[in-house]
C-alpha cells in the first residue's frame, strides 16, 4: 500500500520519493544557523520542485531562518516558494 501511495505522489509531482527522503535525512543534522547550509537546502528544494528561486526570495528565506530563527522544514520552504506565484 505504501508503495502505491508514493508512486501516486511521484506521478502527480514529478518528484521521486527517494529524493525527498534523502533531502529529509540530510536536514536532520543540518546547522540552520549557517547561511551556506540554508542556501544549499533552498537550492536543493527548488531543484526538486523544478522551480527557480530569485535571489531576492532566497535572501528573504535565509534571513527568515538564519537571523530571525524561523524553523526550517519542507512546509516552510514550500509556503515561501508559493508566495511568489
TrEMBL record:
Pfam family, any one: SpoVIF
Name of this chain's protein: Stage VI sporulation protein F
Amino acid at each position: 500500500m505504501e508503495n502505491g501511495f508514493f508512486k501516486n505522489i511521484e506521478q502527480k509531482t514529478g518528484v521521486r520519493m527517494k529524493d525527498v527522503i534523502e533531502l529529509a535525512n540530510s536536514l536532520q543534522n543540518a546547522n540552520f544557523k549557517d547561511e551556506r547550509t540554508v542556501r544549499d537546502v533552498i537550492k536543493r528544494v527548488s531543484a526538486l520542485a523544478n522551480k527557480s528561486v530569485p535571489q531576492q526570495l532566497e535572501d528573504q528565506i535565509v534571513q527568515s531562518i538564519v537571523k530571525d530563527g524561523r524553523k526550517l522544514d519542507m512546509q516552510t520552504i514550500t509556503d515561501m516558494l508559493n508566495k511568489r506565484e
